[in-house]
Amino acid sequence: MAAFAQSAPCWVDVQLPDLEAGKRFYGELFGWTFRPDGDRRADALGDGKLVAALAAKKDGRMPTAWGVYFATDDIEASVSRVRAAGGQVITEPLPAGRHGVLAQAADPGGAVFGLWQAGDRAGFEKQNEPGSFCWTEVHTRSKDRVDPFYEEVFGFRCADVDDSPLDVPDTDEHRVDFRTWSPPGTEPGPETAVGGRSVITAAFPAELPSHFLSYFNVADCDDTARTVQRLGGRVTEPPLDIPYGRMAVLQDDQGAEFAVLQEPVS
Fold first, then answer.
1. Tens digits of per-residue pLDDT, 127-168?
2. Which residue ranges are recorded for the region named Disordered (predicted)?
3. What is the residue extent of each domain of the chain?
């Protein structure tokens, strides 16, 4: 079982109204295959390796959304740090069979994330390859409260970077306020970053809440966006070039949002 660095993103899952429809959508989009994990969940596999999970929502009031989990070797201590730093614990530490122990929390801006203490499942068996997780970032309106929160809870080393699109004018209106997170004990910067924080600007609807956006690596961003539309999903941010490749923000056919990233050709 490969271990994950403390505080690194180690797992993603999506809560959906219709599990079977989700399997059809993501199976065709990313080439995933599935195996049952209980009555209401399915593990997603890419080339036979764990990449994510799909779950049927137990309550229609739950959001249809992708969730990300961060690795911890002491989930009780992590939950205590969440509270001390001004966050909210939504789900107290809860065993997930032999897989491990999970908890859910929200940062001071309201963005929800998970904590994962590994049992016999560390998390991803494949990442940073086409059809698998490659990045996550929190989008918030409360950076002055959120930035110190993630440093205190996860020990992240932070670096402010220019993440602005390459094909728009370099003006204050288009510039992105972006910060990367590197694990404890590393030198902060793009080479070590495992996630980040982006500020929601006035250009977005006022009702858009703080949230995590997780990315999947793809071989062709434009083709993936077209496939999402063909499968009944939506393109919420069309493909555009950023310093790290070509990305798009998409929704599946049930409304769960995610992003894709095509890495630049080296």
1. 999 999 999 999 999 999 999 999 999 999 999 986 555 554
2. 167-192
3. 9-118, 132-262
Task: Give pTM, 2 decimals.
Answer: 0.93
User: What local confidence, expressed as pLDDT, does residue 208 receive?
Assistant: 87
**For residues 71 and 116, is the Cβ–Cβ distance under 8 A?**
yes
Spatial CA neighbour of 55 closest among 115, 100, 88, 96 = 96
Distances (CA, A) of 127 to 5, 12, 83, 177, 190: 14, 11, 30, 26, 17
- For the stretch 26-74, pLDDT in tens is 999 999 999 998 889 999 999 999 999 999 998 888 899 999 999 999 9
Topology of domain 9-118 in CATH is 2,3-Dihydroxybiphenyl 1,2-Dioxygenase; domain 1 (3.10.180)
CA proximity to 66, closest of 133, 123, 130? 133
Q: List Cα–Cα distances, 38 to 27, 31, 60, in angstroms.
A: 19, 22, 19
Distance between CA atoms of residues 82 and 154, nearest Å: 9
The phi, psi pair for 17, rounded to 5°, reads -65, -35
> For residue 218, which phi and psi values (nearest 5 degrees)?
-135, 155
